[in-house]
Amino acid sequence: MTDRVEPVYNIEVEASHRGRVGKSGVLVRNMPTGPIPGPSGATACCPEIKQANAAEFELVNPSKQGNFIIGELVSGGQLSFIVENLPKTTPRTGCPGQWLFQQMMTHFGASVTAIQGNWVGASSDNLIALNRLTAGGALTIEEAAKQTWTGRRARDYGYTQVRVAGYPAGTPSHYTSVQVLFTK
After folding, report:
1. 103 with 35, same domain?
2. Which residue, among 21, 38, 83, has the nearest Cα to 57 in the 3D structure?
3. Residues 25 and 106 reside in one and the same domain
4. 95 and 64 housed in the same domain
5. Is residue 103 helix, strand or coil?
6. Cα(19)–Cα(50) distance, rounded to whole angstroms?
7. CA-closest candidate to residue 103, choices 162, 171, 42
8. How does DSSP assign 32-55, residue by residue?
9. Are residues 28 and 100 in the same domain?
10. Contact indicator for 19, 11 with CB cutoff of 8 Å
11. Domain containing 147: what range?
């Protein structure tokens, strides 16, 4: 951060909503906010983009308050995000998590260099899966991470390498906090 004053421009693009910005030529997508069509066959899914810029993406479902995805590009293109569809219902209602993730990845595109997994707490589906998969030494934490919901979404986009970031809290099958990074 410097005290230097730089011009900032707010532009409106009529045709393409993608462009390259900055000295590095990062590809960004600027999307309008508001309602968008949901996936076919989904029940109680009325998605609405609340925020969509080069660094942030927020897609909510006003029909189901606990159904959303919020993503942010941090640390040189690492994608940090949270996705929820609560309460869990049978049959499933709301916008599917995989579809929400696809919308976010489409928005950020090639700007994503890695996908973070920040799993904390007893209700984290990823952490529950990780604990189940590491029980009794069945899988290493890295192998197990690849089989979590986030690990499968990362693989869908070619992020197949996993590295544990920092030190996980807990022991195999009893982790309480784990951070991983999926890369290409």
Report:
1. yes
2. 83
3. yes
4. yes
5. helix
6. 21
7. 42
8. --EE----TT-SS---EEEEESSS
9. yes
10. no
11. 116-184
Q: At what angle do helices 149-156 and 125-134 cross, to 10 degrees?
A: 100
- φ, ψ dihedrals at 119, nearest 5°: -110, 120
Tokens of 95: 């916008």
> Are residues 131 and 86 part of one domain?
no
Residue that the structure tokens 């260099």 belong to: 113
Task: List beta partners, residue 114.
Answer: 78, 183
Give the global pTM.
0.83
C-alpha closest to that of 57 among 95, 6, 112: 112
4 assigned to some structural domain: no
CA distance 71 to 102: 12
**pLDDT per residue as tens, the chain (184 positions):** 455 665 555 555 554 455 555 555 555 555 678 999 999 999 999 999 999 999 999 999 999 999 999 999 998 999 999 999 999 999 999 999 999 999 999 999 999 999 999 999 989 999 999 999 999 999 999 999 999 999 999 999 999 999 999 999 999 999 999 999 999 9
